[in-house]
Design brief:
Length: 462
């Protein structure tokens, strides 16, 4: 019987672009568009140039484009930089059930490998679809289990998808792809300890996964071997990272639907550059603002938080009420909620510097939370918010599923508008629109136009 890694490789190698439904190919291009926009926006912020210099010091081969910067990098280095930029704003897409940030790994790896190997637009789409389909299923086999052990599933599962992508776009065979995934299992890493002090290393998790996968593909091509039983083995991925001996059987069942059920269509786009768990709470805040609630009217705020999310957005509560930086504020439920209740712009710039919005901090101090079991997590990112007003009234709002998911999707127009808004932070607005059109175009001109436009970033004062 074929190993799980072999089944994944067989699916990817046999996946013909013509077999991918048009709607799924279009969905993949929308995720490429979204990821590039977020990465370009991140490249415009302070600190990105130092990251670029650090990655450039790893090697100087000109193989792939760096988002927002001139010159090219070795493909694996470009994947590291671009994946880090795409994830750094917490504005990148998520599959809620699997809890994976797919495009920060998949698009970063696929763009770099596609450029290095001269892939066509169809090849790129095929690789992005294959990577997403595999990464989602890896996460769904043990939903929440990785987080309970302190690992981010994007980080530890991502190298497998990137290794498969690297092998696919290089034109390698199934055996090489299986070896690459086996090697990638020894490169998986990414722990949640960053929460202890708001460290920014989490941004690197998908970039490192993309880098690791592409390196694994090259090592496999050079003759290094990896265990074919990396997923189901006694010392394999799920037992080590999820402490779940039943997960391989669940993954086997999930792999049965490859090529029939396209899970990339379930991936959610994000409307704010902060932790996705916080978004339904911000929707509640928007509704309250629309109903006329002003910051001065609010005596107290209470949030019902799905208990599985609390580690990331509520603990320790005293620190969440006064985050030490804008980056740390991305994971602060009370601060982000306070921003929206104050009517402040909770956009890229709001989380780029200090977390010093006085109104948001004041409301954060009036906010409390309690654990909520049975919210439907991780399939649903839900929220309940109760606001007690100074006049004694209590207003309540509830969101059963966050916007951007298939149940409540963003329109294509909203996806394009988000891309243009983000890309315009790093390039001329007209060029951003032209690049968006090139990415969404299904023809072969698309990939050439995309890379041509990516080289036209303007000089930015960082």
């Amino acid at each position: 019987m074929a190993t799980l890694a072999a089944r994944m490789a067989r699916f990817a190698m046999a996946l013909d672009a013509q077999r991918i439904p048009d709607a799924i190919a279009e969905c993949a291009r929308e995720h490429i568009l979204d990821a590039l926009g977020v990465g370009l926006a991140a490249s415009s912020l302070a600190g990105s140039e130092a990251l670029y210099r650090a990655v450039r010091a790893l090697g100087a081969a000109e193989e792939a484009t760096a988002l927002g910067f001139p010159g090219r990098l070795p493909a694996a280095s470009a994947a590291l930089l671009n994946g880090t930029l795409i994830h750094s704003l917490e504005y990148d897409d998520t599959h809620t059930g699997a809890i994976v940030h797919g495009s920060a790994v998949v698009v970063a790896a696929a763009l770099a490998a596609a450029e290095r190997h001269g892939a066509t637009a169809k090849d790129l789409t095929r690789a992005v679809v294959a990577g997403w389909e595999i990464l989602i299923r890896i996460g769904l086999a043990a939903p929440g289990a990785f987080q309970r052990r302190g690992f981010q599933v994007t980080a530890v599962g991502g190298p497998f998808a990137a290794a498969l992508i690297g092998s696919l776009l290089a034109g390698r065979d199934e055996k090489a792809a299986v070896n690459a995934m086996g090697i990638a299992g020894s490169q998986s890493s990414g722990v949640f300890e960053f929460l202890a002090e708001g460290a920014t290393v989490k941004a690197m998790h998908p970039g490192w996964a993309a880098h690791a996968g592409l390196v694994a593909a090259e090592l496999a091509a050079a003759g290094v071997t990896g265990p074919a039983t990396i997923f189901e083995g006694a010392h394999g991925f799920y037992r080590a990272y999820a402490d779940d001996g039943e997960a391989p059987a669940r993954l086997a069942e999930l792999l049965d639907s490859l090529g029939e059920k396209w899970m990339i269509a379930e991936a959610a786009f994000k409307g704010w550059p902060c932790c996705h768990y916080i978004h339904p709470f911000l929707e509640c805040a928007e509704r309250m603002r629309a109903a006329g609630v002003a910051p001065g009217d609010i005596a107290a705020i209470e949030c019902d938080v799905p208990e599985e999310e609390a580690m990331l957005i509520c603990e320790p509560w005293e620190r969440k009420q006064a985050p030490a930086s804008g980056y740390e504020a991305k994971f602060s439920l009370p601060y982000a909620l306070g921003l929206v209740l104050c009517g402040a712009e909770a956009g890229v710039r709001a989380f780029a510097g200090a977390a010093d919005h006085a109104g948001a901090l004041a409301l954060a101090r009036r906010t409390s939370w309690r654990p909520w079991s049975g919210s439907g997590f991780p399939r649903r990112f839900a929220a309940r918010v109760a606001v007690r007003l100074a006049d004694g009234r209590t207003l309540r709002e509830e969101v059963a599923q966050v916007k951007g998911t298939p149940e409540r999707p963003f329109s294509r127009a909203e996806i394009i508008a988000k891309f243009e808004r983000n890309a315009a932070l790093a390039m001329d607005a007209a060029a951003a629109r032209a690049m968006g059109e090139a990415i969404l175009e299904p023809g072969e001109r698309a990939i050439r136009g995309m890379f041509q436009h990516l080289t036209r970033v303007r000089s930015i004062t960082r």
